[in-house]
Inverse folding.
């Protein structure tokens, strides 16, 4: 399957690449879907747009810094090439880190709790990644190892790299499908009312855990990974994010969560907070276990698949099944519809 030209069109003599077009499309659709959710969440109007205006410049700069830091030998001889992003060299993980930093600025500017803003944009981030990964297809990059078996030499199992004249694993496609699945799952769970003000921050950490698990696996297939010594940087960062997500869910399971309860009284309805235990706390604990065992399994798999790795994967699967069972038992709490961000 050929990719055709990398150039989408030309404007005033300057070539516009498909990579940039697809990344921009991912951003636009991400902002649009987040804008639709902000209305349901009772957030101020244009919250998603304001965040995008702050996030995009910071994310691009951080994505470039991340790439240059681990490919410094490529730029050491020509420092001006650091600023030539049209030649490629943006790392998604750097962009995610930049987006997290931008969320701090945006949350203060809009006076919205950081966790609530992160929850708003997390599904859109996955959708944008799913679309943007097709830019790698147009550039014929981010592919995996060589595929020699003729029965697997077809897209999407593999992709034909024209400059090499070889079939390679379509790693970009694997990640695109997984990110689309993350977006779909989070949208379904949000619409079902699983996440609300009682579990602020959970949407983002679900995204972080699911994406990290996928990235650690797919990164091991790629031939263009960034390395720190002999370690693939993205794999190590994925394991760290899984452990951090596990810590988040463990801490939340210990604290429980608060639920808004409205009661009728002589002077009219009054609102009070009550603690929510049972399924909510159990779901957080099981999900934390899934993140932790998944991180241990991925860390072990870096040195080769062993029996211990298999046991960790089995425990991770059990934890995920129990997590799903607990989340199905969670009550659908009514989220207050307010015009304020807090």
């Amino acid at each position: 399957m050929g990719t055709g030209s990398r150039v989408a069109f030309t404007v005033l003599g300057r070539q516009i690449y498909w990579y940039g077009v697809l990344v921009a499309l991912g951003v636009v659709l991400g902002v649009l879907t987040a804008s639709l959710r902000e209305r349901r969440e009772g957030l101020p109007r244009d919250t998603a747009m304001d965040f995008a205006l702050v996030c995009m410049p910071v994310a691009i700069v951080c994505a470039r810094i991340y790439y240059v830091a681990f490919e410094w030998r490529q730029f050491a001889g020509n420092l001006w090439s650091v600023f030539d992003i049209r030649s490629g060299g943006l790392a998604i993980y750097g962009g995610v880190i930049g987006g997290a930093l931008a969320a701090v600025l945006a949350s203060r500017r809009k006076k919205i709790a950081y966790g609530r803003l992160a929850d708003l944009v997390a599904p859109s981030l996955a959708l944008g990644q799913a679309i943007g990964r097709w830019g790698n297809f147009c550039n014929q990059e981010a592919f995996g190892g060589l595929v020699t078996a003729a029965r697997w030499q077809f897209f999407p199992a593999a992709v034909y790299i024209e400059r090499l004249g070889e079939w390679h694993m379509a790693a970009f496609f694997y990640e695109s499908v997984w990110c689309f699945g993350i977006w779909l799952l989070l949208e379904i769970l949000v619409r079902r009312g699983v996440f609300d003000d009682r579990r602020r921050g959970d949407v983002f950490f679900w995204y972080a855990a699911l994406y990290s698990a996928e990235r650690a696996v797919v990164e091991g297939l790629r031939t263009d990974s960034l390395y720190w010594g002999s370690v693939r940087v993205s794999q190590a960062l994925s394991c760290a994010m899984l452990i951090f997500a596990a810590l988040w869910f463990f801490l939340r399971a210990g604290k429980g969560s608060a639920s808004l309860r409205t009661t009728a009284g002589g002077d009219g309805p009054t609102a009070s907070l009550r603690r929510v235990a049972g399924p909510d706390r159990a779901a957080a604990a099981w999900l934390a276990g899934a993140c932790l065992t998944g991180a241990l399994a991925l860390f072990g798999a870096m040195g080769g698949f062993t029996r211990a790795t298999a046991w960790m994967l089995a425990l991770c699967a059990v934890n995920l099944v129990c997590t799903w069972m607990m989340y199905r038992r969670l009550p659908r709490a009514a989220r207050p519809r307010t015009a304020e961000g807090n």
